[in-house]
Amino acid sequence: MTTSIPLHFERLAKKGGHSDLRLRLGTYRHTCDSYYLVIDPTASRRLGANLARLLDQWRDQVDELKGAGGITYLPYDFSDQCTAWLRVTSADGCDAEVQAGWSLVEGWRFEPSNYTVTAPEITDFDPIVNAKIECSLDALSKCIAMNSEAHATSRY
């Protein structure tokens, strides 16, 4: 397993709303909207803080897989008719496969600031071809934490 994780969630444009975020997972790239992150009723007025909060939840979910293993889902694109998720699967509680995919669970049905209530409802995960990496859970958790810190300390 690699220690350098090719996973990054970044802001593309200063003006929020639509096509202003990008998820990178290995060679896969996906442009998405910050709209639902911004309108979340418990969210900050700063997009950077909202991204950091989402990523902190991601890290917590990944950390729960350590030791026992299992599957968790991490949302990254919230749309009216569907959502995009990273499925993190660990058979041994040490190593993981991270796979991007879609669900028909609508983005308006839940708040990004508290997605863990909805994540167990993802039963229709449809994987995206060639959008997968393998890594250790420790390295993945550290990568997510660094990405979160970058957003938390940003000015946007």
Describe this structure as you would to a colleague.
This protein has 156 residues and is α+β, with helices and mostly antiparallel strands. The protein has helices at 35-39, 47-65, 137-152, and strands at 7-11, 21-25, 28-32, 70-78, 83-90, 95-103, 126-136. Helices cover 26% and strands 33% of the residues. Helix 2 runs antiparallel to helix 3. It is globular.
Assembly level: single chain
Rg from Cα? 14 Å
Topology as a string of helices (H) and strands (E): EEEHHEEEEH
Number of strands: 7
**What is the 3D shape?**
globular
Q: Bin the helical content.
A: 25-40%
Give the class from helix and strand content and strand pairing.
alpha+beta
Distance between the termini: 34 Å
**Strand order, largest beta sheet:** 4-5-6-7
Count of helix runs: 3
Poorly predicted regions are none
Q: Mean pLDDT, nearest integer?
A: 92
Specify the biggest β-sheet.
Answer: 4 strands, antiparallel
Measured by DSSP, the beta-strand proportion falls in 25-35%
Topology, please?
Elements: E1 7-11, E2 21-25, E3 28-32, H1 35-39, H2 47-65, E4 70-78, E5 83-90, E6 95-103, E7 126-136, H3 137-152
Antiparallel strand pairs: 1-2, 2-3, 4-5, 5-6, 6-7
Helix pairs in contact: 2-3
In short:
Helices cover 26% and strands 33% of the residues.
